[in-house]
Amino acid sequence: MHRVRLVLSGFLPTSEPSALETHGIDAQIDDADTDAAAGEQTGWYVRIDQGIKIVQYESALIWGNARPSLQPVFRPGHRAVSHRETTQGSRGKLSGMRKRLITPIPQTARPRDEGWLDLNAAAVVEVTSEDKDYPVESALLSGETQGWRAASPGTQTIRLLFDQPQRLRRISLAFEENEIRRTQEFVLRWSPDSGRSFREIVRQQWNFSPPDTVREVEEYQVELSGVTVLELIIVPNNSGGTARASLKSLRLS
Question: Domain 119-252 is of which CATH architecture?
Answer without folding.
Answer: Sandwich (2.60)
